[in-house]
Every structure is written in C-alpha cells, then in structure tokens.
Amino acid sequence: MQLYFLCTGNSCRSQMAEGLAKALLPATWRIQSAGVEVHGLNPQAVTAMAARGLDISRAESKLIDPAYLASSDVVITLCGDARDRCPALAPGTHALHWPLPDPAQATGSAAERAAVFAAVRDQIEARIRATWPQEVQA
Fold first, then answer.
1. pLDDT reading at 21 higher than 90
2. Does the annotation mark 12 as catalytic?
3. Residue 14 — pLDDT band, cuts 50, 70, 90?
C-alpha cells in the first residue's frame, strides 16, 4: 500500500499525518507527505508529535512528487487548498479528503496554540484508526 498525505505547505497537518501513519500502520506500507507549496517544518508540529513519543524533527517540507502521486494507492488531502490544487490522480487511486483546521493559524497563548496542534494531531490519529482499523498496529 502506498499512501500520500497532501496539504498546502507540508509543514503541520501532513507532516503529523505522515508520522502517525508510519507509527500506526504496517511497516510494509510506503507513506509520505507533501504540499502544493513548501513552508518548512513547523516546530509546534514537532513538539505536538514529541508529546506522543514520535520524532518528526528530521522531516522536510516537500513539494508533491508526480511519480509518487501517480503510484499512490490512496491520496489524502488535509485541507481544501490541497484538494483544489492537487494534480489529477491516476485511475484507481482512492482519494480521501480530511478537512482539518490549520493549527499554524491558531491564536492565543502558547498553551492555547499547543492545544490546537494536539487536537489536530489527535483528529488525524482517529481518522487513521477509523479508516484502516484492521491495519493499525497494536
């Protein structure tokens, strides 16, 4: 199975999704993330994942790779911008859209912003578990 998470800047949601999917789904799955733009890895996404024991600190913000996209079994867009700007998918590719709020847009205190990142991280995990319940590692 080849899975691709897409977002606008590949800095928060898609990076957290890639990290969670790699932790939860079988090691035989190929999992990547990318953006329609490159915004750099958001340090708050790194912190939110570290709170769950997952290290995404070495991840890099990447543009969509046409070859990976063309060979993906499932493509999941995490925001409307990525859904609207995603290149055409190959026949047979299963497209899912998980519209999640952009945690980078959170306002308030540091604790309030961190809570938004944690909430989005947890929504992504719940969606992975619900979409592939038989595949999730114990």
1. yes
2. no
3. very high
CA 138 to centroid of chain Cα atoms:
21
Catalytic residue among 86, 100, 104, 128: 86
Which is nearest to 6 in space by CA: 81, 73, 57? Answer: 81
CB 3 within 8 A of CB 31: yes
Q: Domain for residue 136, yes or no?
A: no
Does residue 138 form part of some domain? no
pLDDT tens for 29-81 read 999 999 999 999 999 999 999 999 999 999 999 999 999 999 999 999 999 88
Indicate which residue of 3, 7, 56, 118 is catalytic.
7
Catalytic residue at 86? yes
Residues sharing a CB contact under 8 Å with residue 29, sequence separation 6 or more, in sequence order: 1, 2, 3, 21, 135
Domains held by the chain: number: 1
Q: What is the pLDDT of residue 107?
A: 94
Answer whether residue 62 is part of any domain.
Answer: yes
**Among the options 24, 45, 48, 79, which is catalytic?**
79
Domain that holds residue 18: 2-131
**Domain of 116: which CATH number?**
3.40.50.2300
Q: How confident is the model at residue 138 (pLDDT cuts 50, 70, 90)?
A: low
